Amino acid sequence: MRTQGRGFTLIEVLVALVIVAIALGAGIKAAGALTNNAERLAEVSAAQWCAENLLTELRLTQQFPDIGESPFACEQLGRSYAGKLKVSPTPNPLFRRVEAFVANDQGQPVLNLATIMGKF
Prior knowledge:
By secondary structure, the protein is α+β, with helices and mostly antiparallel strands. It has one domain: 2-Layer Sandwich (Pantoate--beta-alanine Ligase, Chain: A,domain 2), CATH 3.30.1300. The chain has a four-stranded antiparallel sheet with strand order 1-2-3-4, with helices on one face. Strand 3 and strand 4 form a beta hairpin. The longest helix is centred in the N-terminal third of the chain and has 52 residues. The protein starts with 9 loop residues before the first helix and ends with a strand.
């Protein structure tokens, strides 16, 4: 009597390949999402540095900012950012609300940073 070797059938092999393909597809999608998140984090961090540098410069010059809006531009990590500095009054005339709106080079908003500045 001959004994037959036990092996996988064609259907079992195909099912295993489908499972592996689905797992690889999910892994590639997750890796893409991580890459996009890392890129977004770098963009937001650089925009925050731009806004913080501008607000720190205002504090160091010890000037009480005038009410209104003014544009600004800066470059961080090799990227150009355009922004708008908006100064608003507060109920106390010795303080002003200062907001820095930062957008990327395509004009899409990236960050909004606000602070209160007092009269020196």
